[in-house]
Every structure is written in C-alpha cells, then in structure tokens.
C-alpha cells in the first residue's frame, strides 16, 4: 500500500484515528485503565444509540453497508437482516426507550418469509439477534416458533457424508455443494436454541458434528485459519483450503478468524466440550499475536501487506465479544483486557463522530477486499457487535436477557 493510500484511508475515518493510534500504542504498554475504558465504552454506546435514534425511524428495509456514508438496503435482508432489529433491541436495553422496541419488532417481522429459506446457511445471523431475542425479551410465542422453523430449514443443508453444513447455493445446485466456510460457526447457536426449545437433540447434534468437522480441518498449527475448506459433496472427503473473502487459501481473513473465536466459544458454552474451548483459544491467541498497536485488525492477518493494509473494525468488535466469553470460561483475565483494548480503540478511532452525514456508528470496516466490495465502509454487523461487546462489559445481565450468555 502506498503512503498516499494509507493517508487517504486514515483521513476518511476522521482525525481521531491518527491521534488514537498513538494513544493506543502507549496504552498497550501500560496497565489497562479500567475506569477510563468504561467511560469510553459508555460514551460509544450513547453515541450509537443517538445515531439510531436519528436514523432508525426512516429505515424501512435492511441496511447492508454504506456508500458515501449512507446506508444501502436489501428488502429481504440478504444475510445481514438480523443485525438491524438486533441493534435496535440492544439500543432498547441500553436506553429503555420504547421506540427502539417498536422499531425492532416491526423490522423483525419483515424477516418472516426467510424462516423457510433452505438456500442459505445464514439463518442464525438472520434469526438469532432478531427473533430469538424478540422471544427472550417479549415472551411472544410466534418469535420462538419462527426461530425453531428457521433452524429446521437450516439443518436441511447438512451433508451427512461429510458431517458439515453447506455454506452456499440452493440444495439442487451442484456448485459449491461441498463448500464450508468459517462464518457458519456463528449460525450454530440457532440450532442449539432449537434443541433446547423442542427437546429434540437432532439440531444440536448437527451443530456439534459441523463444529467438529471445522475443528479437524480449518485450524493450522499456528492457530490461523482459511476462510473456506472444500469437501467432496458425495463422499465427504476433504479436498483442501480455499478462500473467497481472504487474500488466499494460505492467508487468514480476520473476520473469519473472529467468527471462529466467537463461534467455537459459543458451541463450547452450549455443550461443555473442552476441545471446542481449546480451539477457540488457539484461534484467539493467533489473532491477538497479529494485532498492531492500534488494536484494530487488518482485513487479513497474512496478506502480503499486513499489517500495513486496510482495516476491518468489524473483525475487532466480533472478536472482542468472543474474547469476553473466553475470559469468563478460562479465568484468564488477559482475554478480557484484550477485548477492552480492542473495544476502546475502536470506540476512540473508528466511530463516525467526525462526520455529519454518516448514518452508521462504526467506520473502517471491510466487507470483501478481493472483490473491491466495501473497502473501509460501515457495515451493520459492526454496529451490532460494537453494542453487544459494550453491553457485555456495562450490562452483562441485561444482555443475557437478550441473547443468552449462559453455559452448560
């Protein structure tokens, strides 16, 4: 990356980026100031809620990313539709303002047709932060039933020969029939929810089988992972690593690594399987070893220009949520400290506070660098996981009401 390109990206995120990086460098060498971190996180949550208060009443579809700082939309939610009602629920928890609850319910309702969608692995992303949370916070049976139906649609994508959930493509489409991606780890909790609600073990059994397949094939000896691993869809035999959103099959796409940290930690919480926790730690330790002093992940930890490459703040906030879980489960406080450093760094250097026209809260996210699709923009899951991570710190009990932070 040229010097001029780096300057442009830094400027686009606001002057606070350059200042915050040097501040973060000093902080990384010192004891974490818990009180200062808490103040920063509370201010960031207040900012995110204020942004939603201003923008959400005019939103009638599902934000998928920004163009020139304004949201672009999908009518059916694409794969990200759950994050908009999800962040409205979190805004309601943080502020107590009833308008957020009203908007969250109306937005979640628009996802109803997707509960029967067998053409995607992303039903957990769509229905957990929207419908599962709606049921947990309101007790209305229709949300619970719809989430269970979504789980029933998801398990139709299970390949018993390879013991994996197919990522992409219609069930009748032979293309990508053996393709598994790290992101699916985050869809497994919908299956755990369905087994808990129905007392039918099949959902969780499929989730565990998929997680064990990923565990066997994705992690490298150093704890890094590829985005994709391909299998023969007929025999289930492994073919090898690949990528779509990472730099190469041998690289480590940072958001995929974050999905793995959080996803393996969650499936451990639902099963008590110690190997899942060990895998989450391996992935977390690699990612933490690759963080730069500004504590904002580069888009791919092993791309040739890393660490001097474009950033992906969404990978940071996702990983921070997983790290906070890891800290509780392993009783190792350095995971919590790392999560707080990431969340405070992103709160200080990646928010849209310098822009009057921005409709999102978090800047400096990268959706698909190889396709040059959404490079250092805002993304709805970054806004969602920023609030989730902050509420894990400020109001864990309240967040538990929404997304179930319990362990087996």
In short:
The chain is mostly helical.
Write up what this structure looks like.
The protein is mainly alpha-helical. The protein contains 15 helices and 7 strands. It has a 3-stranded antiparallel beta sheet, with no helix packed on it. Strands 1-2 form a two-stranded antiparallel sheet. A two-stranded antiparallel sheet has the order 3-4. Helix 4 runs parallel beside helix 6 and helix 8 packs antiparallel against helix 9 (202-217). Residues 1-29 have low confidence and may be disordered.
Helical amount:
40-55%
Strand order within the widest beta sheet: 5-6-7
* Amount of beta strand: 5-15%
> What is the structural class?
mainly alpha
Radius of gyration: 20 Å
Query: SSE string, helix = H, strand = E?
Result: HHHEEHHHHEEEHHEEHHHHHH
Question: Roughly how many Å apart are the termini?
Answer: 46 Å
- Quaternary organization: single chain
Could you list the spans in which at least 5 consecutive residues all have pLDDT below 50? 1-29
Describe the global form: globular
The whole-number mean of residue pLDDT values reads: 93
DSSP strand count: 7
- Please summarize the sheet with the most strands: 3 strands, antiparallel
